[in-house]
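Q: Protein A?
A:
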Amino acid sequence: MPTRRLAHFLRARHDAACLARDLRVWETPDVVTWPEMLRRQFDSDRAAGRTTARWLDAGHGLIVWEQIVRRDVDLRSVLLPSGLGTSAQQSWELLHAYRIPVRVLHEDASPEVQSFGRWAVEFGRWLEQGGWLDPAQASLTVGAPTGGKPAEFVGFDRWTPAQAAFVARIRDQGARVTVRPVVTEDCTRDAQVVECNDFDAELETAARWAAQSLQERPDERLGLIVPELARMRARARRVLDRVLVPGAAFTGGPAPESTAYELAAARPLLDRPVVSAALGWLAACITPPELSAASMLLRGAHDGAAVSESHARAELDVALRRSGVPRAGLDYLARAAGAARRIWCER
């Protein structure tokens, strides 16, 4: 499967088909994504003694890329080299997905490509010395699925050269392989073009079309393609809630994630309150936060003493706002809290 979402859909559709046949017990289909399949085949090869390599997790690989970038003396003037490590890792993955030799990078005169070429050579040397197998290279080395069961690839509307080469290789090794396009219910409807004034009007029109289609055919599955959904997630959700789940407008506050539809773009981890609070406290340990950030941390509800110290923290927050201190580090907060405690004890 290309994505976890499609894998989940196929499992759910298989279960629904079994229930429709009045079955009470059935074999769970073995549906995995492309990266999961490669990792499984690597584990199988290693257990059978066909390889002695070690699997390199993406997080471990990113650390290595960042170290390589930071050691590059030609990039000392770059302010944020950590971002280049992520870009380099993504470029490395694309390089192998389209089977582009590393040596061609040195033929490009642009300084960006030349820098990446140096990093790629150093990263490849590091992989070889440590006996690591990078996931980007796994499709070139892992063996065919074992166990005699046929392999079926579903939903790959566009194959990269590396994926196509892997499928051809395991076929040559005798594996039974079937390739099917994306599963669709009905692709025969004529396309229509509707012009709207702006992006919000497009969302509104698409949501109302979906609501009308679901009212006429409640069992129908629909998909709305929203460009840059990760960035437009909040706007898309507000429109869909208002049209598809009008009761969400009467909750008196932000509605929970609706079960009437599903957004393919997950919420950024930083938007989770507990994660935001944890990162805020960590940042406060390094640099004194601004008064507004310190106030938010004091009044937060995601640390162990938030409930028992809620009243005292509220009083300290008021005192900080009256003091007019632009930045309040943890040391300053501790001294202010100690002073307030002594005053309270004297009273």
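Q: Protein B?
A:
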Amino acid sequence: MIPALDIDPFCTAFFDDPYPAHAAMRDAGPVVYLPRYDIHAVARYDDVRGMLMDWGSYTSARGVGISDFAKEKPWRLPSLLLEADPPLHDRTRKLMDKVLSPAAMRGLREPFTTAAEALIEALLARGSFDAVSDLAEAYPLTVFPDAVGMPPENRRFLLPYGNMVFNSFGPQNAFFQAAVADAEPVLAWVQAQSRRQALSPNGFGAAIHAAADDGDISTGEAEVLVRSLLTAGVDTTVNGLCAAVYCLARFPSAFDQLRADPSLARAAFEEAVRLESPVQTFFRTATRAVTIGEETIAEGSKVLMFLGAANRDPRRWDRADDYDITRRNAGHVGFGTGIHGCVGAVLARLEGELVLGALARRVATIEIVGEPQRRYNNTLRGMASLPVRMTAA
């Protein structure tokens, strides 16, 4: 019998400290039932990863949120990447992987490095600052829209847009209602920025629209894919950078290791994503009766995957709650995995590596000097404020 647990994964108390509930779900069994929302959930690493890899049994096309698109009309356009299965998904993902190719990332390394070094120098001159608004948000909002080919005006709309989209994957609770309260100007701006005429001729956005000229996608699909990129390219990076600074400040020995060997910058970012898991959850829908462990769940069941719980599962990770930048952390599910792995992960990893590399070379100490404030979101784990002080090396 599937254990039923009285856990609300979409409330303030859970967001403040999800780890006891994560452990309770992992200990209860491979799959649990959360009657509050009439959903099933998996929290162990092997089960979460197995579900992510098996798109045939656990579809994304019926929505990666709590809503079932087969039973209700979505309030927003479904993502052509995150909420599509093959063959449609293969066509759009192939295009996005081409746009965000290794060669494209190499072309961004120099300007992204220059921007990272300049930002860290400016923050060192200030000494004390908010690591969320002044670093984790400021850096991606500088470099990413440039790479897409967006104009400089109103870029901060990308933050409420992402907050809105990721809140929509949960129930229509107070967090969702607050996120969509001022949706109209944000959605209008994002829609306008997705059109070809709003984009420069040599960014990622133009490359996506060029695929419409070649007949690979329609003009409408091109605009939806640009919007998907605007979602994937900001929030994972912002919360990943914030997680990394938070970890390095709380684990000074790890920062000492990074300073001694700046080549560990990429590993330090990956370990922060594993430990803090900026994207905490996603849903799938069972396409048939499926067996998890020894339990069977029915076709049409919504299943909530706890990526954050999987990334701290002691069955998979030694000293799972420690921040260890020398850990072999390949295989973490902080960016998902399988065909629906985060399309923006390549950008997040590049930005994380370059910012942490700049910190390693230029900063001696990072200290938290005020009470961190959580930002509550039905899907994301991040902060609204992280006051820190840095000293120069």
